[in-house]
Design a protein that fits this description.
4 copies of one chain form a homotetramer. Chain A has 3 helices and 7 strands. With 138 residues, chain A is α+β, with helices and mostly antiparallel strands. Chain A has a single domain, classed as Hotdog Thioesterase (Thiol Ester Dehydrase, Chain A, Roll). Chain A has a 5-stranded antiparallel beta sheet with strand order 1-4-5-6-3. The mean pLDDT of chain A is 93. Chains in contact: A-B, A-C, A-D, B-C, B-D, C-D. At the A-C interface, helix 1 and strand 3 of A face helix 1 and strand 3 of C.
């Protein structure tokens, strides 16, 4: 479940925000899920999908499961880099994997995944829409 | 702009969450706007309005202006108390005032206001709906 | 990994905050980690530990791993109830389990766990402090 | 209090995050304070100050007052641009002004300010440190 050797890994990086830190002086663990989401958004944008377009086309991709491991923490004053790739793409669900690093280093601070299900606008589970799926398959 | 002498002041209190602190060890300043919102929600509930009902009836009360002064900060391990009262209630806008204290103390940590405009579901400014206004007037 | 039959399950409940919702109209998935944290804080308070005291005694309990499954979402206007219990208590790590429900219902919206390691104030892994451990063992 | 004509206005822009939206479908108002903070951080970085360095040198710049006006909201799928400039620089306090726009437009969605006081690491108010002040004066 590492990025290495994966055919399409998208990276994005941005500064840690002060509001994202907590009293331990490092980024609060829940924030990494927001970083994952931003990695996923960038992944979508890079392959030509804006998630807003998915919603506009009558579909949603809510999160059904998450997992993350925390080896080390980022601090205010640092940038973080998010590596995102698709781990699994089935007819009704889609899994993204993530690694968070400091730019210029190969040490993974946090790794994790988010699993999503395809639903219609009413929230009923549906098959992955062919148009979006073709783009995701790359 | 203090709560004293005001005919209807609603209080609610809850523990500071760890995620709400920042690297200075105290609650991040943006969090107090969320505390204000929770004070406002409690105010609404206490007078018999759930903001979800306002939205369900086709109206919205978006925030048009905010202001706050920070005298001192709350920490994890403390509870905060939010005092909320209506400062101004005009045909198209509504202002709530707030004070944040530690329970058992009269020292105001943070004070502020949020100003709201009445809009329909499409976001067009509208007059305050009579039904809600009657309840707000008390 | 359900609460049922567990010797000590602590519950706390509070209203969903508007800021915690997202454009899907339900609570954003990252927020549930903050709810878990609030469940854990209440657990600690109920057994006589304030996490602030743990930090004051020179220890920390950073999160090393998390996992969660999302069956359904809570909305603004609802209260959420968090059930928290200790799943595993080893010499160097501690796992809390969580369920999020709507009060008055047994349907679990979200379930999950957070795994923690004991460290000193410098962040070095250490054995669980005897004093805290005795209280956690109950 | 607009950016126009101001000698040093720093801009930064980034995508709206899904977690930052609320059930109205737009960015939650408290998030703009985090955007302001990110504008201020970029301002500092651009003139050669990292706020982490200020803290490391024994000073803090806590927020003492904020104000903001909301004309319109940004949505997921859009980028926001933050314009930041120093509005007032006195011996014991410092005011930053902000405008939030969509890149490519001159319509200001949100404008506001944050006022800060200089304190030492213990939180006692102090005069602005000469070294930092010289850089801020430009």
């Amino acid at each position: 479940m590492t990025a290495e050797g994966h055919p399409r890994v998208i990276e994005t990086d941005f500064p840690v925000r002060y509001a994202e830190t907590d009293a331990m002086g490092v980024v609060h663990h829940a924030t990494y899920l927001v970083y994952f989401e931003e990695g996923r958004s960038q992944y979508m944008r890079d392959i030509g999908i804006d998630y807003a377009d998915i919603e506009a086309s009558g579909y949603q991709l809510p999160v059904s499961e998450i997992g993350a491991r925390f080896a080390s923490g980022a601090s205010y004053g640092q940038r973080v880099r998010i590596r995102t790739w698709v781990g699994e793409n089935r007819s009704r669900r889609l899994t993204f994997n993530y690694e968070v690093l400091l730019p210029g280093s190969d040490d993974v601070l946090v790794s994790g995944f988010t699993r999503h299900i395809w639903t219609d606008a009413q929230g009923n589970v549906t098959r992955s829409p062919a148009a979006w799926n073709a783009i995701l398959k790359g």
